Amino acid sequence: MSEVDRVPQELTSFVGRTGELAAIGGLLAAGRALTLVGPGGCGKTRLAVRACREQAGAWADGVFWAGLEHEPEDGGVARALAGALDVPLPEGTDPLPALVRALRGRSALIAVDNCEHVLDGAAHVIAGILAECPHVAILATSRATLGIGGQRVWRVPPLDLSDALSLFLERARTTEGTELGAEARAGARRVCDRLDRLPLALELAAGWAGTLSPAQIADSLGDPYAMLDGGARTAAFRQRTLEESMRWSHRLLDEDERVLFRWLGAFEPGFASDAVAGLAALGGPPPGRLLKALRGLIDKSLVVADTAGPVARYRMLGVVRAYARARLDEAGDADAVRDRHLDLYLSLAEGLAPLLDTDKDAWRARAGAEYANIRAAIEWGLSRDDAARGRRLAASMAWLWHLEGRGPEGVRLLRLAAGRGAGERGALQAEVLVAQALVADTALAGGDAYETARTARELAAEAGAPAAGRLAGSLAAIGLLATDLDGAHTAAMAVRDEALEAGDGFVADSSLALAGLVHLLRDEYAEAIACFEPALEGLLRRGDRGVASSSLGWHALAAARSGDLRKAADLAERAVATAEPLRDFHRIGTARGVLAEVRALQGRVEDAADAIAPIDRLVADSGEPVFIPGWERVKALLALGRGRPGQAVEWCRREGRWRAEPKDEHLAPDTRLVLAEALRASGEEAAAAEILDGLAGSPLIGSMPRVRAAVAEQRAVLARAADPERALDLHHEVLRIASAHGLVLCCADSLESLALLALRRGTGKAAGILAGAAERARSEAGAGPGPSTAALRDELAADSGEALDQGRCMELRDAISYAARARGPRRRPDSGWESLTPTERSVVDLAVQGLSNPEIAARLFMSRGTVKTHLAHVYAKLHVANRTELARLATNGPV
Question: pTM of this prediction?
Answer without folding.
Answer: 0.74
